[in-house]
Structures are given as structure tokens and as C-alpha cells.
Design brief:
By secondary structure, the protein is of the alpha+beta class. The protein contains one helix and three strands, in the order E-E-E-H. The chain has one domain. It has a three-stranded antiparallel beta sheet. Strand 1 and strand 2 form a beta hairpin.
């Protein structure tokens, strides 16, 4: 299972989204008190650091 993202649940709790390397199944798991904060922040910021579309094209018509 590879961590791929962070999910914020309705109650504000964070969960790690994992993808199985063998079958691509997605699973979530609540974060734990001993999880590395910088690694969690890196997962949370991944969509901002590497957007799925080119940001330079926003606002152009």
C-alpha cells in the first residue's frame, strides 16, 4: 500500500489514502499520533505542488 493523498473527513479528522500497488484498490486509514507531520503535510500539499492541469493557462481565453 502506497500513501497517495490526505482526506479530511467531515469531523475535521485527517486520514491517509493508500493505493494497493498490486490491484489499485484505495483504502483510508486515520492518522496516528506518531505519524511524521512533515510527511503528512507533503501528502496534503502534493496537489498544489503538482497540479493535474497547467496553472499558466488559467484566466486565458
Amino acid at each position: 500500500m502506497e500513501p497517495i493523498a490526505i482526506e479530511v473527513r467531515q469531523d475535521g479528522e485527517w486520514a491517509i489514502v493508500h493505493r494497493c500497488a498490486g490491484c489499485d484498490t484505495l483504502r483510508t486509514n486515520r492518522i496516528a499520533g506518531d505519524d511524521h507531520e512533515l510527511a503528512l503535510l507533503g501528502l496534503a500539499l502534493r496537489p498544489i505542488a503538482s497540479p493535474a492541469f497547467p496553472l499558466g493557462d488559467l484566466g486565458r481565453r
